[in-house]
Write a structure and sequence with these properties.
The protein is α/β, with parallel strands linked by helices. It contains 17 helices and 14 strands. The strands form 4 sheets. The protein has an 8-stranded mixed sheet. Strands 1-2 form a two-stranded antiparallel ribbon. α12 links the parallel β5 and β6.
Length: about 575
């Protein structure tokens, strides 16, 4: 968690960036504006990380005690041209950056190059670009947009994972070139670090990137929400599943929020991101691009399939069986099954209705879950009780096959784009005693389901949006883990209860937590009735006497002013 000073710094920074960058929005539609800003933030982000590694490497090359030390005496001294050329050449060796998982940025794509030349190229200019350590090339640029597109092309050419991913559309933008140059100068003000704080470039720019995704979700309304899930909800699912090792899969990944939070979780618990393999799929092309950029920014290896595509008709990972599956798909999606066969092998527990994709998402995720795997899925509340189109039968089959592990009811007003109340389903294919990926000794939970009612948690962060504190997230996740392990777990009226399958059957297989956890217990009144009655009667008498005294005082004051009372 960030300190209050760090949070204040980040809040001031995001307000500054959004307010200033928002001036461009009048000339661009929301989708163009989003990519205009985020594309530049992406270049700034990877350039900053590259520059930090560049500076560290230079110190190592000049440090006699380091393995990489480059001895000036072998080249005629520190001031010699031969030494400076060799030093420059070593600083451009790509392997040095790969060993620290630093994203490689070609010279013509580095932020400093853009900032040094963003005014020069307005109206056209020829620039000299460093090509490797010892050679240069000249290239003509027609505009600021051309300069940025060239940077993105160079990045793609040198990073195979991003081939065809970056949005190279700046040359085509119908925008004043001076405004675009101004935006470069604005984003350049994002600092590497803040004196007195522990935040580094990755922390700061990662926060800016996530913040802007959220702001675009607000600006674009419903469509924006297709790629943005509230960070606290993502964090909750990640905290509960604890994806330390294995394959992590999101079939409706949006901008990759679950993967980012998985990285944060692993780092916070001293794990290694290399122990996790990332798989994702996304239908929307621009969002698929954002997700790939989001992973590249953080140096996370990923497999998002060959192309953006429908999870239902063009499954990009047909043979994948993941250890952790997490998703926030579109709620109550209609007409999702065009081109999907009724006997699709994923519909093990029943064919989902055409009018609602909730149980299609759930079964797709189960199909791709490994034998010891678990999944967390955000769905609309209706999924817990609806019987429309055979949904009740599918839910019953899931329960009878003992796949449902935990249900969490969420408070309202968590989402920027919908007021539909939501819940989280947690399923697993193995409730028997075993050791989890995080090293926990799980007890045998066969035939049990945990219900958590979190509707009373959280706080209003503004007039329309609710959010969770870290303490709220810990309360829910620790309750779940205590239940899983059998250590320090107790049912709590109004909040959580462990329920046997037989009780679910009595309730017609409805999975609404409120039905099982009941109401919070009222505090016991230890004061005897007779004593309490005497105390309250005496209290009331005193209040009547005080009322009479005040009335007399008021009449006296009014009479003194000449009023007839």
């Amino acid at each position: 968690m960030t300190s209050s000073a760090e949070q204040t710094f980040l809040n001031d920074l995001e307000k500054k960036l959004w307010t200033a960058a928002d001036k461009l929005r009048s000339t661009l539609d929301a989708a163009q504006y989003k990519h205009t800003v985020l594309g530049l933030v992406f270049i700034k982000y990877v350039s900053d990380a590259f520059d930090i590694r560049h500076a560290d490497l230079k110190k190592q090359l000049q440090n006699p005690e380091h393995d990489y030390f480059l001895d000036p005496e072998d080249f005629g001294g520190v001031e010699s041209e031969a030494y400076q050329e060799e030093l420059a050449a070593e600083l451009e060796v790509r392997d040095y950056y790969a060993e620290t998982n630093t994203f490689w940025v070609p010279a013509g794509a580095r932020w400093q190059f853009l900032q040094d030349n963003n005014k020069t190229v307005i109206g056209g200019a020829e620039l000299t670009i460093q090509n490797g350590a010892n050679s240069q090339v000249k290239k003509k640029f027609s505009s600021v947009g051309h300069l940025i597109d060239n940077a993105l092309e160079l990045i793609e050419a040198d990073n195979a994972k991003l081939k065809g991913v970056l949005n190279k559309q700046y040359t085509r933008l119908q925008i004043d070139q001076a405004k675009l140059a101004e935006l470069i100068d604005l984003i350049a003000t994002v600092p590497f670090e803040k004196e007195g704080l522990e935040l580094n470039s990755k922390d700061i720019l990662g926060h800016v990137y996530e913040y802007m995704l959220g702001q675009f979700a607000l600006a674009e309304g419903k469509k924006g929400g297709q790629f943005y899930t509230p960070k606290s909800i993502v964090s909750l699912i990640v905290q509960m599943l604890e994806p330390f090792k294995g394959r992590v899969y999101d079939p409706a990944m949006g901008s990759g929020g679950f993967f980012v939070q998985s990285e944060h979780f692993i780092n916070a618990h001293k794990g290694r991101i290399d122990d996790v393999s990332i798989y994702g799929q996304e239908y929307n092309h621009t969002t698929w691009q954002l997700a790939a950029m989001n992973m590249a920014i953080r140096g996370i290896d990923f497999n998002f399939g060959k192309e953006p595509a429908s999870t239902y008709t063009h499954n990009q990972h047909p043979d994948l069986r993941a250890d952790f599956v997490m998703a926030n798909p579109p709620f109550n999606m209609k007409e999702w099954d065009l081109g999907v066969a009724e006997d699709d092998p994923r519909w093990v527990y029943g064919t989902p209705p055409s009018g609602n994709a909730n149980f299609a998402w759930l079964q797709h995720m189960l199909y791709h879950t490994a034998p010891n795997g678990s999944l967390g899925l955000l769905l609309a509340n209706g999924s817990m009780s609806s019987n429309t189109g055979g949904e009740g039968d599918i839910r019953k089959a899931l329960i009878e096959n003992d796949l449902v592990e935990c249900m969490v009811a969420l408070p309202g007003q968590l989402f920027t784009n919908t007021q539909i109340p939501a819940c989280i389903w947690f399923l697993t294919k193995n409730k028997k005693a075993r050791t989890s990926a995080s090293g926990k000794k799980l007890r045998d939970r066969t035939g049990e389901v945990l219900f958590i009612d979190a509707r009373n948690l959280g706080f209003m962060k503004d007039r329309v949006l609710r959010d969770f504190t870290q303490e709220d997230l810990n309360t829910v996740s620790e309750t779940f883990h205590a239940w899983e392990t059998g250590q320090n777990y107790d049912d709590e009226a109004g909040f959580c209860k462990s329920v046997k399958l037989a009780e679910l059957e009595k309730h017609d297989f409805v999975l609404t937590p409120g039905r099982y956890v009941g109401a919070a217990a009222e505090g016991e009144d230890s004061e005897p009735f007779a004593e309490k009655m005497a105390r309250l009667t005496s209290q009331l008498k005193s209040q009547f006497e005080e009322s009479d005294r005040l009335e007399a005082e008021i009449k006296k004051n009014l009479a003194g002013l000449g009023f007839d009372v």
